[in-house]
């Protein structure tokens, strides 16, 4: 399946927790999520882990300070592309298009020549996200230099690392428990 901004359906390979048979702990953990999708209902098998995942994700993606929200979505999209997570790319590229109000930019990013027309800041973020995802121990000071040259502060760089690290874990979890398919497919 190709990268897209279309809404996809995630089909689990592990039976999701059903509301009718959920324990009070599972119901509470699911209540902390924005919507109890099949993915979250699979993760609800271990309520404490789902709660931790929700709080970590929200703390990294929605906090004030650090990278602007659009740059977080750009990093999430680039990391997810590198990891081959079609579902996460569809979600975060769609959010990126909404935040930037530039669906053409996003289509180019996830298309045949990913990121061909990026400005210096976006290029530095995408290149760093891809490099950190592909080989964390290979990044080092040389990998951070283009971020500094593009004007990112220490707080923004640290935030970028958190986003990319989060998606290294999240993509692997999602791809190991199910797969995306087109809606109605």
UniProtKB/TrEMBL annotation:
It holds the Pfam family CMD. One of its GO terms (molecular function) is peroxidase activity. The keyword GTP-binding does not apply. Transmembrane segments: none annotated. PANTHER family: CARBOXYMUCONOLACTONE DECARBOXYLASE-LIKE DOMAIN-CONTAINING PROTEIN, SI:CH211-175M2.5. Residues 47-97 form the Carboxymuconolactone decarboxylase-like domain. Keywords: Oxidoreductase, Peroxidase. It comes from the Bacteria. The keyword Oxidoreductase applies. This is Peroxidase-related enzyme. NCBIfam families: ahpD_dom, peroxid_rel. It comes from Actinomadura vinacea.
């Amino acid at each position: 399946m190709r990268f897209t901004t279309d809404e996809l359906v995630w089909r689990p390979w592990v039976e999701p927790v059903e509301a009718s048979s959920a324990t009070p702990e599972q119901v509470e953990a699911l209540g902390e999520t924005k919507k109890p999708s099949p993915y979250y209902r699979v993760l609800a098998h271990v309520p404490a882990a789902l709660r931790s995942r929700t709080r970590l994700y929200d703390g990294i993606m929605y906090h004030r300070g650090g990278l602007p929200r659009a740059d977080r979505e750009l990093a999430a999209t680039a990391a997810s592309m590198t990891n081959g997570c079609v579902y996460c790319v569809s979600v975060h590229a769609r959010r990126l298009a909404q935040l930037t109000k530039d669906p053409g930019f996003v289509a180019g990013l996830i298309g045949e020549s990913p990121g061909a027309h990026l400005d210096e800041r976006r290029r530095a973020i995408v290149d760093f996200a891809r490099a950190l995802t592909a080989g964390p121990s290979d990044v080092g000071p040389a990998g951070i230099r283009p971020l500094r040259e593009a004007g990112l502060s220490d707080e923004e760089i640290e935030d970028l690392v958190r986003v990319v690290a989060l998606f290294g874990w999240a993509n692997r979890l999602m791809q190991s428990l199910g797969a995306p398919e087109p809606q109605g497919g």
